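Re: beginner question about structure tokens

> Can someone show what the tokenized structure looks like for a real chain? I only ever see the sequence side.

Sure, here's an example I had lying around. Input first:
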Amino acid sequence: MLEAWSAARRIEEACLVQRDWRADGGVRRVRVTRREIFISRRFNGVDMMIAIPAPAYNGVAMDVAQGQDGAPSYRLSLVHRDRDLDVLLVETQDSGDAAVDWKYWASWLGLPRLAAKDGELVTVDAAHAPSAGLPRRGASNVRRRRPRFLTRRKMGAAARMAEVFAGEREIICYD
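And the corresponding structure tokens:
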């Protein structure tokens, strides 16, 4: 059984081991990052790995089922169009932890939260942008600098650019 992640815990990636009936040894390894989900397994002696972009998933779903002892069991999973690519994130019996983790995973991956209702998945809230994402290179001061090969060139002058030569002919002479 997977333990619930604490929402206070900030992670850059999560590595999970899950059951996979088709894989050798019955397990597959899943690495979840903000941008991609990597699923690797061994099938008939051949190592296989697939990388799926996080936006390809429909959302983070919460499913409530009856546990072995009769108490409710909460399962959080990434839902994909192809059911073989679904990823179980958390399985717990604590409803508080499940709710916090559900919100955390959805915001961390920038996906909507989904809930099972009458056998169908219903969107609970829209996707949110990741809260503590990596800094973008486009916002840095490096983007404002001129490229190395342009440093010797002069900047354009607005007065010179305002001149319009309309209705004139260009004479080209090759001697």
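Each token stands for a local structural state, so reading them left to right follows the chain. The CA atoms of residues 158 and 164 lie 12 Å apart.
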